[in-house]
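[step 3/7] fold_predict: job queued, chain A
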Amino acid sequence: MKKLQKLTNEVGAPVADNENAITAGPRGPVVMQDVWLMEKMAHFNREVIPERRMHAKGWGAYGNLTVTHDISQYTKAKVLQPGAKTDLFIRFSTVAGERGAADCERDIRGTAVKFYTEEGNWDLVGNNTPTFFIRDVHNFADLNRAVKRDPRTGRRSAQNNWDFWTLLPECFHQVTIVMSDRGIPASFRNMHFFGEHTYSFYNDKNERVWCKFHFRTQQGIKNLSNKEAAEINGMDREYHGKDLFDAIERGDYPKWTMYVQIMTEQQAKNHYENPFDITKIWRKSEYPLIEVGVLELNRNPENYFAEVEQAAFTPAHVVPGIGFSPDRFLQGRLFSYGDAQRYRLGVNHNLIPVNRAKVEVTDYHRDGAMRVDGNYGGAPAYTPNSQGIWTAQPDVMEPPLDLDGAMYRYDPKDDPTDDCFRAGGDLWRLMAEDKKQVLIENTVEDMAPVTKNIKYRHAAHCYLADPEYGERFANAAGLNFDKVKELSKLSHDELVEATLKDMD
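[step 4/7] structure written:
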């Protein structure tokens, strides 16, 4: 017979009764002396931590990355050397929905990977798309507010979404992806994911190149139609989480092949558009995919809250051999992600087991709420110190980066090489006919409640990407195509002015 586990209170003392309150007489009121009841109620009131502002609904799993190819000419990161096998934790998520949202919504999917390397943790934060909606971190909060609930109605608003997206033409490529058949993956296992941003590699000679990270599913791409997704959401709002969990439980471990794209510093200086603009892609015909290894997921968490909800990621966590770039959106994320976790989980969130490095940490950080280790005992709390404790390691410093130009608030639209519609047009022309039709139908359906002025603004963008794209959307949305062509001849500011009010 299995031995019963004994119930204790919060500090280990035995609890005599967990079902009946202490009352003044058999029918009297509860007394304050029932301290275990007070503890249970007080703890319950505080069990829900603030949810993530974005990516609130998510699922996670453990696995490893095995490096099968040699890219040491580009990076000295030990995690990426041939034969290296590194444990990891990954969290998949929707972006706009709250913690109770349905899994199968039309949205991009967040993908955050924590690699527990021998040189410290490396967090790679991205999505299932190679680009993003915006490129300047000043628009970060505004994008998130536009896709969240309307402050007056408390409901999600297609009008707000499309107003914001069409006022920033750099959103166009990402919008095309989200409205395509890939806007609702059939499962996390059946989608690619990307680091999105441009990062840097530097090798043991301190030579820098720029890189992008790609993870291509070995399970094949599968997606859901709006109708299929609606039916699933009506039956199982946790469909993607269940699919991932069940696949791992039955030993059907999902795998992705990891690749990088490489661009030299000289190539970046001569590139025909800003290579650090996250709304742009690097064409694979120009910068081919270089195989690195295989990422496999093979273990489910034991406790959702402890391991998935408390998992914390920030792109600021890199290791020697991997660095940042002048990507202005990445620069903002370097601060915002870690700061969000300090608010959500506390200043010592990196001591939570799922976030904790597998190597010794000696960072001089002390004290703070929920400090659960020895707090470095009596070791010096300052640097420099005469004891030679925890000195910096200049040998891992990145090579210097030359910068050009005056300090100023530059608008990328003023750059003559900036083209917000080239990539979206290329994507349209790559699509098979049935995929084009799905894109048009999804867009028209999503924009059904949106006012005509915003539909015309989007139609003009479609036309600028590809005339066929513009004509088919205009016709399907019931717009005057001649008016769309006239609007497409306007500058961005003129187009905004012409479409500020609703149009007949």
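[step 5/7] annotate
DSSP finds 15 helices and ten strands in the chain.
The first helix runs from residue 35 to 45.
exit 0
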